[in-house]
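Exercise 7. Given the encoded structure of a 90-residue chain, write a plausible sequence.
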C-alpha cells in the first residue's frame, strides 16, 4: 500500500511541477491584492470616523495621523504572511 501511495505522489508531483511556479505567482498576487484591499478598507473606515468626528464635534484630525495609521496598517497587514510555507519551493 505504501509503495502505491509513493508512486502516486511522485506521479502527481511530475504532472504538477510545470504549473507550480505560475500558481505561486498567482497566489502571491492574490495575497498582495487582498492585503492592499484590507489596508484601503481600514483607511476608508478611518476617514469616515474622522468625518463623523468633524461633523459632530468639530474635531479635525491632521493628515499626518492618516498617513501614520495607513503605514501602520500596511506594516501589520504585510507582516501577517505566516502560513504561506506551502507556496515556497522545496
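Solution.
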Amino acid at each position: 500500500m505504501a509503495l502505491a501511495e509513493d508512486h502516486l505522489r511522485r506521479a502527481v508531483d511530475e504532472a504538477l511541477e510545470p504549473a507550480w511556479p505560475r500558481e505561486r505567482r498567482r497566489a502571491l498576487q492574490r495575497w498582495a491584492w487582498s492585503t492592499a484591499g484590507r489596508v484601503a478598507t481600514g483607511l476608508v473606515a478611518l476617514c469616515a470616523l474622522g468625518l463623523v468626528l468633524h461633523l459632530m464635534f468639530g474635531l479635525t484630525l491632521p493628515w499626518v495621523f492618516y498617513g501614520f495609521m495607513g503605514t501602520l496598517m500596511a506594516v501589520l497587514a504585510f507582516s501577517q504572511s505566516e502560513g504561506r510555507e506551502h507556496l515556497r519551493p522545496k
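Remark. The chain has three helices and no strands. Students should compare their own answers with the one above.
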